[in-house]
Amino acid sequence: MNDVVVGWAKRSVPNIDRCCWARCALPNLLLLLAAFFLSGCGEKLHKQQSYVFGTLVEITVYGEDAAKAKRVTDQVLKDFDAMHQTLHAWQPGALERINGILALAQPGKPPTAPLPPELIPILQDASRLSALSEGLFNPAIGNLVRLWGFHSDTFEPRLPDPQEIERLVKAQPGMADLRIDGLMLSGANPAVRLDLGGYAKGYALDLAAATMKRQGVDNALINIGGNILALGQKGGQPWKVGIQHPRRAGALATLELHDGEAIGTSGDYQRFFEVDGQRYCHLIDPRTGWPAKQTQAVTVIARGAHAGTLSDVASKPLFIGGPSEWRRLAGKMGIVEALFIAADGNIETTPEMAKRLIWETGSK
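Predicted structure:
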């Protein structure tokens, strides 16, 4: 059995105010924390771990010889590193350069920025999903994310100036402000700052799945900081994953993840800080400019050609929508299986998700 906890929980450290911070800075070359291959009990089970997208990445390949598993996994990690460098929200790279140009917008004078070809389908798809989510998934609010301190390699827990929050909210930055013409991007709203952190991990899962299939790897589990996609099976059995408990170590529940399915979690325990006993997470409500406060965690399952991307994106609007809106938003996003945990710890699921969950003892 291969158990994977969904939701890469960063544990808080003592400070004047309690904070919890995922460092996202990486050097130009991929920082390899550990690479190892395991073979036991007659199984061909190969695992490789790395650190990219500011989180732990683990790829498990089943049923292939070590040389092939290593070759394919190395290619996937190389692709991840290239994507990280392109999409990093504040370190020098393509996205940072584009954001710098978009910030120069003046009335009647939208600046234009050249786009790397690989960014075009990403921005087009992110715009489509943003509209589908009624703007609650909004990659254009990078200035708000930065204002709250979540665009930094170091972190100091503090509250932003409420007037500055209000100014950015009134500016209404959105993906609809952008226009793509060939290889050029233009935007008339200087408040737009792109941050694809809520999209990139899921897109990377789909990219990895396509690469592995082309290379003849049929059975694998790809885990990017708790966003997980399954290919095939492990020894004739579905892959088993666990859903992180949002308020204590360990799993809340487990379930079987089948071929082509992806699971994604958004939680207020992943990146947050506390001031005067109040928790402020990295999931910003574009309508208010403040971190969403009605939810502890949301887990969704997606399937299909873009299961990874949808599993990453869809959990965000459900989280921000809160207890009164998550079910409706799940329907709009095409999500049938979802688990919602409110700020008070109350747990709700869709009927389809309830059938799949095996609750851990004492978890409810």
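Summary: The two ends are 24 Å apart (CA to CA).
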